[in-house]
Amino acid sequence: MKVIYNKYIPFGKFFATNIFGLVFCRSDKGQLSEVDKNHEYIHTLQQREMLFLGFTLWYYIEWIWRYAKCRNWMKAYREIYFEREAYRMERDLEYRHKRKHFGWWYMFVEKGTLLHEIGEFLGDLAAFVKKDFLTAKYLYALVLAVLVVILQVKFDIFGVLIEPSYDDGTSMFRIPLLYIIMYFLVLMPSLAMHHELWRLRHWQVWVFPVVLLTIDGAGQGYHGYLRWADEHGVWFKDKFYLQLLGAYMFRSVFIVLMLCVFRKLTEGRFGLYGLRRSSKYLRVYALIFVLLMPVFLYVSFTPQFLSYYPKMDIAYLDGAMGWERWQLIGLFELFYANDYLGVESMFRGALIIGLSRWLGCRAVLPMALTYMCIHLGKPDLELCSSVIGGYILGILAWRTRHLWGGIIIHLGIAMFFEVVGITRLLLQM
């Protein structure tokens, strides 16, 4: 923390102010005491854990909200959570060394409330980043993610490398190979930068990711049922509908294989796929989903999403299989939802909860970049946001040892887009 004495900042009656870890102090009002320095250092810790910008927004929003209640600027200022912690603990010069993340939240927000749970949620995220973060590692991951986005947006690598393989039958090999390459492209440098290459002595670190990603990728790439449809002269609409179902139906078979591997990884300690009984952060997940719904609604009407969702072309498939429209939609959405359960079980379950036994928190970043690859061919915004969402959900799976957060948010978003898309198409018909 650096102290800068000057004649102008801060304004008014204030003696010092902390801006992004720089303490500006009025030289005409004396020198900072050790207590004052401790006060400002507590603010620096608060700002770091809220990534500075989050602290600034929260600080002034809370100040305005409290002023609206009491109509007194100084009283409102002293009631701000950040200030209450700093004033209460400023005389404890050892507090900075023993302080918990989001200490202001734990002090003043009642346990068991949603606000307290939000604080714990943010604290878990901050604690993980502190434990796992290396500038070089995260810059490397960022460059890799940007490269994937550029290759997809500019050169359509999904259309060039993956889509043609569905016709020649090699998709069962190409998709797993893509996932495995990405996983180890992140894992190996990550362990090297942390000086933890000793983790590679465990054969499970090599074998289980390969087996899991092969099972998952092969499940997505299997299209052998289309040859059966051609041999039996299945009507083109029925064939197209079977192709849609098959993309998710056959993955269910491969999910059973993943279950066997996952139970081997965890020795059954975390329940089926990590779906153990746990309510930790469920209210926070639900709140996040509700707050993001206006964003999802806006995004669902952008041109790329309109061309991609709903996944089933209702008008084209009318009459397929000799079924009613509601039957076609209902069966497809059932398999589509099941696919998302499989995705969470695979990426947040087996690759995080399972492999953390040997990789610890280093299991999260490789999973996030690999998870990004399953979104190739989807709308650009979804591709870009997938790595961030996958990373956050991976952290929470690692900390809570359950998958309910990913299921609530991931499946909720998918179904939201489907409902909006289906409703729009039905109103147009």
General description of the model:
The protein is mainly alpha-helical and 429 residues long. Helix content is 72%, strand content 3%. The chain is built from 22 helices and three strands. The chain has helices at 34-49, 53-70, 73-79, 81-89, 95-98, 103-108, 114-132, 135-155, 157-162, 165-168, 171-193, 203-221, 224-231, 236-266, 282-299, 303-308, 314-317, 325-354, 356-359, 364-373, 380-400, 404-428, and strands at residues 2-6, 16-19, 22-26. The protein has a three-stranded mixed beta sheet, with helices on one face. Helix 11 (171-193) packs antiparallel against helix 20 (364-373) and helix 12 (203-221) runs antiparallel to helix 18 (325-354). It is elongated.
Helix content: over 70%
Stretches where pLDDT is under 50 for at least 5 consecutive residues are none
Tally of individual helices: 22
The overall pLDDT, averaged over residues, is 82
Number of beta-strand segments: 3
Spatial gap, N to C terminus = 64 Å
Outline: elongated
Derived from helix and strand composition plus strand pairing, the structural class reads mainly alpha
Strand proportion: under 5%
For the biggest β-sheet, the strand order reads 1-3-2
Radius of gyration of CA atoms, rounded to a whole number: 26 Å
Order of helices and strands: EEEHHHHHHHHHHHHHHHHHHHHHH
The major sheet is characterized as: 3 strands, mixed
